[in-house]
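Action item from last week, closing it out:
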Amino acid sequence: MVKGRFISLLAIMAALMAMPAAADGLELAARYESGLFDVDGGVMEIVDYAPVQKKAYSVNGKTGMLAIISYDGTDKLKAEDYDVRGAVEKADPSFSYGDMTSVAVSPDSSRLAVALQAKAYDERGRAAVFAINDDGSLSLRVIAVTGVQPDMIVFADNNTILTADEGEPRMGYQAEDPKGSATVVDLSVPSSMIITFDRFNWNRSDLVDDGIIIRKGSMPSTDFEPEYIAVSGDRAYITLQENNAIAILDIPGRRFVSIQSAGFEDYEKIPVDLDKKDKAYSPALYEGVMGIRMPDSIAAFTSGGETFLITANEGDSREWGNHVNEVEVNFGDGESSPRGNMAAESGISGKVVFFDADSYDGLDDETDYIFGGRSATLYKVDGDTISEMATTSSDFESITAESLPEYFNASNDNAVMDDRSGKKGPEPESVTVGEADGRTLAFVALERTGGIMEYDVTDPYAPAFLSYTNTRDFTSTVEGSEIYEDGELDKWVTGGDVAPEGLAFISREESPSGLPLLLVASEVSGTVAAFIVE
């Protein structure tokens, strides 16, 4: 199939009339409120679900606790906190505990695993594995060594755990840059193996030629920073966000088999809103400007015996020590883009943040780049390679502009319209896939504007937009918020669900309510919401 866009709702309305009835949106069923919030995020982050015990588990980055969440059919989710740190430090006093970053439940609900980073930025982390008791409580069983800074954890099967180990140079590039890696934990032994990218150092130039972005003067083994994992069969697909790439891991073989580019959004063909000062949705085309997708989350599903991937193309910059790869251009002050493709007369009146392409290999010398794709992308897997099938293109911006015109491209720490237009827009953060009533559905969370995009990917050759649901309250403020002269809010916190970070789908068969549910953990509002998927 020729790659293209996800099909918009208007374009396929006639076709959908002949299909089984689809929902107008997700319906909020219940919500857990931690009582904590942080405009910088980091409260309720990642969530997963144990269908046998009918319990959800979510990482609270503010307290360091793991919330064990129950759903009794009311509009309130209830939770008890479990002290992971206390259990781990008692069992392994030699480990200098830093923080908990991710949680995963085994397919059979017998085990739960959490990813733990060490206190020192360059020390190896841990995967702590617990037995899930009949009542949902936890009993520590195994502590396995991982690579440096495990940021995401997932079960490949009931006995195999994978972690994505970022290895960020948090003390700056003048200090050690730890190696990025993936760790495979075999619980049947138990044992763990840390798999690095050393074998790709010898063909760095080939990777660069294929559009893999690598910092000048560095090697893949240290520059690659694994972010998120999706598993299908005996393969794992791991995003390397800052490198705009997807690594394919052969799980039984314990080796990376290839590194694939995630591609770009071409803003010469795709309209994008880059002007944060005009206070309007004003998409335009820009010759010689591209968005580096830089996917964060990734999900995998199969259809007709083929494997497909979906990425949430957030974008991410690097700010370590004296190295910052952002270039801020104020067109209102008469500045031009780094490569000169956008002059002061471009019509933009505000600031735009560009990628510092001069400090990296793998990019075109004459193109200007911005962070993120403001999109989701569908890929098809063919052995050790992937091919792009479709992209949501500009849909996230156009749909949110129509749905929330007063808060288009607002950030998650203010309610200012257009605030994020010059920098990553709505920021697609996470993605998951589930099956409901014979349909395969994909859900994409938008970190900044908020809300969930829902797509039908039952036929991956013709994906279709279904709905956009946003349960954020843009009007709630707290003491200490500042009001600009024009009435706009500076700092605030809302009711509802702000900055969705983690998603977990629950099928009808496994749901505590008998209805398919989507769990959404939001890191600013400190909430976990359960939505009915019909």
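Closing note: The two ends are 30 Å apart (CA to CA).
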